[in-house]
Amino acid sequence: MRIGEFARLTGMPISVLRHYDKEGLLCPSHVDYFSGYRDYSADQLEQVRKIELLKNCGLTLKDIRAILEHAGDSKLIKDILDRRESEYQSMLAAITEVRHMVEKEERRFLSEGRSPAVLERDAYGDMILKGARLALPLAARKDLEDLQAACRSLEEEIRRRSLQRISGFMTLGEENGKEIQVAARVLELGEEIKELHEDIAIPFEEDEQVIGKWKVLGEYAVREDFYADTGERMESFMGNRNGEIFFLPGGESYWIYSWTKGFLKLNGGDQSCLCRYELEDYDGSRYMFVENKGDEYRRGGEPTVLVLEQMDHKKYTVREIAREDDTDLPFVEDQRVLGDWKAYDFIRSREEFDPAVSHIPQDRLMYQHMHFGEGGAFTSVYMEEIISGKEKQSWTKGFVLKYYNHTACAYEILTVGGRDYMIIEWKSGDYCWGGYDTDYYVFVRE
Q: Whole-structure pTM over 0.85, yes or no?
């Protein structure tokens, strides 16, 4: 059976199966010489079960490989398990110490008249996370700054606990009391980000007022966060990553976007959905509030709010809004780049690069592998797709040239701790169509 079917039966991502093959842990029963397709047999399903059982024991892939290769060596297996048990006992001791430290910190909070965040249910069964207590009255500027800081602190706690805030921030307190407590309604989120596929094939209906370019101001937990009436606009989940979305005449599609009256249509990869929008004229500008079915929604939560500001009413064409680099660069040799490179991390800026830190789990990296060959030959693996051929992409010193989307992706190679790392620009649709600056992939030499 092909790798996709095997992944479905085992519940394992294809990237993990490829990694297991690379580590010699679970190799395909057959690899086609010409196409590179991997085939697995039904007998190997039992091997997967054994690997998962050993992983649940906290064993490393190196230890698992040793156990599988030496299944009859009871002494070797016992030594590995004894070592893991000793490490586990040390970890339990450390957890106990941390628990005591947390309890001590809670007692310190209470002695200072503050309380750590507490999750409760109200009379309607809704979950409410309650945070810091603040003394009344809140009149001076310093008091308002304290209130804003308490809201930010509670927001950090919400994200740390894998919750989603579904209300604006509230202040709770008894009538004629001397203090208030910052709180918010929340939902529990699941761990898995599920695929989302809705029927987006609805008839087009005109809405002249939305045609043109819209600036993405940010993604917010709730619409209330966008307004500055409380003295401070809440931070967008997107930070400073502002981009653009175009509403083309007739609802014409580009990249992952199209539209019809009342809905922004999203269709890309593991997500296709209808996102309802509303318009509002506020403070001299026109804004669009889009129901955003992002990671929180796909983890069992509610839609967040994507806020756009209208920049113009121009009737753009797809050609006009495409962003293209100069890919007509002469070939220059670079012996240092030759060979195979494996995806290691994904970062927003070069400054985030740290070989000791993984910003995204490797099994979620879509850009997986690159091979730099002689004379500019270049092959890459994106998800399950193998992209090769000089008519599609090539390289020259300092750049990977992707002719299929007209981008030149600069790369640099750093050596850290004896290993070569490549930081390369990732000019996806965000760059070509969305108005964003480039992101970066980090690769390590294989």
A: no
